[in-house]
Structure formats: C-alpha cells, structure tokens
Write a structure and sequence with these properties.
By secondary structure, the protein is mostly helical. Helices cover about 65% and strands about 10% of the residues. The protein has four helices and three strands; from the N terminus they run αβββααα. It has a three-stranded antiparallel sheet with strand order 1-2-3. Helix 2 packs across helix 3. The radius of gyration is 19 Å and the shape is extended. The termini are far apart. About 5% of the residues are buried.
C-alpha cells in the first residue's frame, strides 16, 4: 500500500512537471539558474553539493556528477515550490508554523555549532 501510494505520488509529480511550462535559463555570476522566473542563488547549490559530497558519497564522488544531481534536485524543488505557491499553500497556518519551527531549529543548531567551534579542549 505504501509503495503504491508513493508510486502514485511520483507519477503525479512527473505529470505535473511535464504539464507545466518550466522556464529554465542558465544564469551567470551568483545565480546558477532561473526557474519559472525565479533565480536560484549559487549558495543553495554549493550547500547541497557540500552536504552530498561529505555525507552521501563519503567525500569520494565525482564532483561534476554530484553537482549535476544537486542542480537537478534544486530545479525540481523550485518547480514544486512554485506550484505550491500558485495553489496558495504558503498561506496555510499549519505550513507557516512548520516553516517557522524549521527556521528556528536551524538557527539554534548553527548557534550551538558556532559556540562549540570556539571551545578549546585540553588534556588537563
């Protein structure tokens, strides 16, 4: 049942992507690509590549392949985000609360990482 549901969702997403006219334009400088009129910052791609290189591939993968996969995923994310925005999903209170929770969690994690980086461990 779960596999069937996920395959149905996958098919729906594929149909959505094929049905939509997605305007993908390669950009220069700090923007990597423009999807459906919205530019994607190079920092997003760099973060995805960095995390995938270290975690998913043990840091030993072909960087060009990792970058291509990350860019494909970034374009897909933007297309899905745009469709959610067009459907008015960003106005849902529950979704706004989840976004705020994720945002504050990330900021808290970064604060702890910053604090831990400043701690010097000695043998004493």
């Amino acid at each position: 049942m779960i596999k069937r549901r996920w395959s149905m969702i996958g098919c729906q997403v594929a149909v959505l992507l094929l049905a939509m006219w997605v305007n993908v334009v390669w950009a220069a400088d700090e923007d990597v690509v423009v999807v459906d009129g919205e530019s994607m910052d190079r920092a997003l791609l760099d973060i995805m590549v960095h995390s995938r290189s270290a975690e998913w591939y043990g840091g030993m993968a072909d960087q060009a392949e990792v970058r291509r996969e990350a860019l494909d995923d970034l374009v897909t994310m933007q297309v899905l985000y745009g469709e959610a925005r067009r459907r008015g999903m960003l106005e849902q209170r529950e979704l706004q609360a989840e976004i705020e929770l994720q945002y504050k969690t990330l900021i808290g994690q970064r604060l702890i990482q910053d604090y831990a980086a400043g701690i010097e461990v000695t043998e004493e």
